[in-house]
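Example for tutorial group B:
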């Protein structure tokens, strides 16, 4: 057996004909920039999210940057986020000209600790970016209360959480604006880079539609300085096909996660926690183990490609040295990233493969 962390081939094979047709449709229409396939995607994606407005953009990273621009983030503003995320979350804050302020995570959900946020708020704080890490939404209802109390924006980085829910409400319901990535390995993945933003506020989405396209409403009139962060219509039309399957794929991920949890329950491992009323979408099946690096290389010998998300917390990344943080500043994040192991998970993973991963993991723990 050879078990990759994410298996894209099986999924593509299962819908190959539809995908080929979707690509052909865009080519036959020479609709290569903007146009009806993008508009169809925006409508479909908004519907899937149950949020009225969506805009397709070039990546999850540009989605974050545009979200910050749309709320008017500028020089010297402060934006609070977590160091337990992919670098793009904090990178976008710096690129928008603002200052990053990190707050540690909750040890069970691994998402930003809402109880620690108020201490980090100053009169310069303009927004919080919550991250729905591994496919579990952050405590958005509590974060919304804090954002309202201090009159600051709440942005949700839902790059890993397409279809996740709290009390039946997904990303973008509790936040002012939510951002998504369709990087190929994400739960809803394109065949290249792509992203989206969603919001209940049409003004924010309109601003983003202008900013993503050189600051223009009309072809040659540019009212503001924008950039080129447009979504490729070929990607949009591929996602139009995949949107018909994402709910089923997320269900399969949950079935796999349940099997992993059942088979791993009596071991010295911290398993993913799902609070009441939350629906996880298991972009990543993250466990905490002792001797992580030994286990990782043992599994690799067995052709099982587990991963680490992520090896280095953002406050300790060389690129963020200028922020002045040091080791020990965010102990819960540091402990997570020292021990976290991501087991292979794709909707197509078979029972045999799950059992093989579990048996190998048990052997790895015992050596
Ligand atoms: C993938 C990811 C991003 C960046 O998305 P890209 O499409 O790769 O630019 C941002 N935030 C998180 C949490 C991610 O997982």
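The residue assignment follows.
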């Amino acid at each position: 057996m050879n078990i990759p962390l994410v298996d894209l081939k099986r999924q593509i094979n299962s819908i190959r004909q539809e995908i080929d047709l979707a690509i052909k449709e865009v080519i036959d229409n020479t609709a290569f920039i903007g146009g009806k396939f993008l508009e169809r995607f925006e409508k479909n994606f908004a519907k899937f999210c149950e949020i009225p407005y969506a805009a397709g953009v070039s990546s999850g990273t540009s989605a974050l940057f545009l979200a910050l621009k749309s709320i008017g983030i500028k020089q010297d503003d402060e934006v609070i986020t977590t160091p337990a995320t992919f670098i793009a979350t904090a990178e976008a804050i710096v690129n928008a000209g603002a200052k990053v302020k990190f707050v540690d995570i909750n040890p069970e959900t691994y998402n930003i600790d809402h109880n620690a946020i108020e201490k980090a708020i100053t009169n310069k704080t303009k927004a919080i970016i919550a991250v729905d890490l591994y496919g579990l939404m952050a405590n958005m209802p509590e974060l919304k209360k804090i954002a309202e109390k201090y009159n600051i924006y709440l942005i949700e980085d839902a790059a890993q959480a397409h279809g996740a829910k709290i009390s039946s409400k997904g990303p973008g319901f509790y936040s002012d604006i939510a951002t998504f990535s369709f990087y190929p390995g994400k739960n809803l993945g394109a065949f290249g880079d792509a992203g989206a933003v969603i919001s209940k506020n049409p003004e924010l989405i309109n601003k983003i539609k202008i900013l993503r396209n050189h600051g223009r409403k009309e072809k040659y009139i540019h009212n503001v300085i924008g950039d080129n962060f447009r979504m490729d219509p070929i990607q949009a039309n591929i996602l139009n096909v995949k949107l018909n399957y994402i709910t089923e794929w997320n269900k399969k991920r949950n079935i796999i996660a349940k099997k992993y949890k059942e088979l791993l329950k009596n071991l010295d491992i911290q398993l993913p926690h799902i609070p009441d009323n939350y629906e996880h979408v298991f972009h990543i099946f993250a466990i905490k183990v002792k001797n992580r690096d030994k286990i990782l290389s043992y599994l690799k010998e067995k052709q099982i490609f587990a991963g680490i998300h992520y090896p280095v917390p953002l406050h300790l990344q060389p690129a963020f040295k200028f922020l002045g943080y040091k080791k020990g500043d965010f102990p819960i994040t540091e402990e997570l990233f020292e021990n976290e192991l991501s087991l292979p998970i794709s909707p197509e993973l078979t029972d045999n493969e799950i059992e093989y991963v579990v048996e190998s993991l048990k052997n790895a723990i015992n050596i």
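The mean pLDDT is 97. Compare this with the pattern of hydrophobic and polar residues in the output above.
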